[in-house]
Each structure stands twice: as structure tokens, then as C-alpha cells.
Amino acid sequence: MTDPGEGAARARKANQPFHFVGETRPDVGVLILHGFTGSPAEMRPLGLGLHREGFTVHGPLQPRHGELPARLRGARYREWIDAALDGLETLADCQHLFLAGLSMGGLVTLYLAALAAGANEGFPAARLKPLGRLRGIVVLAAPARVNDPRTRIVRFAKHVIPYFTPKIDFDSPKTQAWLQEQAPPGARIDFADPAERKRLGDAARIPLDAIDQLIRLNDRVVQLLPHVITPALFMLGRLDKTVTADSAERLRRGVGSPDATIQWFERSGHVLTTDVEKDAVSASAVAFVRRLI
Length: 293
What we know:
- The structure is a single chain.
- This protein is α/β, with parallel strands linked by helices.
- It has helices at residues 4-14, 44-52, 77-89, 104-116, 125-128, 154-157, 173-182, 194-203, 208-224, 247-254, 278-292, and strands at residues 18-20, 25-33, 55-59, 96-102, 134-140, 163-164, 206-207, 232-237, 260-265.
- Helix 1 (4-14) packs across helix 7, helix 2 crosses helix 11 and helix 4 (104-116) packs parallel to helix 9.
- The termini are far apart.
- 41% of the residues are buried.
């Protein structure tokens, strides 16, 4: 029988950044970016799929991520852009660069592609130099719009309601396993303790100011889409309830690239990289990269 502590330790390790050096094509580097409140764990299957093809792959952990969401309070989307640019520095030896991002990571991917084409967002030129080697982008489940009308009032509500509190089923084995993964090594959570449930509920709250930053990033990316001229592959799951169903098409139509396509995954939801069609997602990303090198 597997020790729950060992399972939690493996999960914590998966939440950390990963870097796989390519064997047959180390000159091809792929920067993989996770989503809002997520971690590199959700991108690891895609990273491994690309690495098996011989490519060098780096999956960084975005600032204030990898723990319970309350830590996102005070976040600014510029932090996420800066962290992605730092990630590109780890691929300095790669002649051909690609970006692949899920949800928020997809927005960051589009933002970087706009910077690569000369969009002036106030970053020092030296920081943007690696983007001169950008060959293509893979955008997974990125929103043109978030599928929740409440986002329209976040910018105002954040001043009076600091957190969004999601409903948590503390009796769900899946929820318990996830929360145990976030706990410090060796710690055991007593899910029957009301005080412990309250503490965990408080920590799982999502700061509205961070949600506002995500919305601001989304709005800015939509404005920058005409600057995106690199080849682009957009992926979206038919069962995605997080972004609007027309998101991929709106983004594809908005970019300035003549080489922009959409691929749908009929049985997948928002987190394409871990859903039932994750192998097909990886295969599509691999084929896209191979076509452009």
C-alpha cells in the first residue's frame, strides 16, 4: 500500500519547475507555462511528450503559485511576464524557441509573441533578445473572454470584497489528496476538525485583486493580438466551462499571423494537458514544432 506521505511528497515535487535537456534536438527549446492558481505539475505531461521527441523543455513556476491561492494577494501580471522572460534565459543555448501556455499561460504566451514582433510594453531590449529566436506558439485553452459574467465587476468589487471563496468538499477523497499535497512535508491534515477546515478554506480563497490582474492581462493581450505574427496553434476542449466557446476563434482571427489554426478536443475540459486526450494534445504540439524546424 502506498504511503500517503510519499504520494504528497511526489506531488510537491511535481509542483516545482522542471527542465529536460533534449537529446536528439537540444537546439529546439520549448518554454511551457501553466495557468492561474496552477503549477508546473499540470504541464508536465506535455513537457514529457515534447522531451521524448528530443527537444529541450523548461516549465517554470509562476510567482506566488504552487501553493494555496491566498498567496496570490498583491500579484501583478507583470510578474508573470517577467518570470516567463526569465524562463527563456534557461533556453539560451537553443537556436529555435517555442512557447506553449495553458489558460493564463496561454495569455502570457501571446503577450510574449507580441513583444517578439516589436510591441512596446516598456521592457528593456536586452530582456527581449531571446524572443528573436521564437519560431511558433501553442496556446491551450486561453480566454478571449472568461465564461463568468461576475468578472465584469471584479475591478470594483476587489475594494470591498477581498477574496472569492470557492466551495470546497472536504469529504471528497480527491480534494483531501490535493490539500494534503499542499501541506508541509510530514504534516497530516485532520479533515474532521472544524478549525482545520476553516483554516484550509481561508487559505484556498482566491484574492480578487489577483483575479483583476488576470482580467487586465486578458484585456491587454486582446489589444496586442495584431502584433502576433509568429505561427500559432490554438487548442480548446469542447467541454471547457472556464473560457467562452468562441475564445479560440476570436484569438485566431485577432492575431496578425497568416499561419494560425485551431484544434478542438471533443472529450476534454479546460486543463487539456491532464485530461483524457492529453496524449493527443502532446502529439499535436510535437507535430506543430516539427513542422516549423
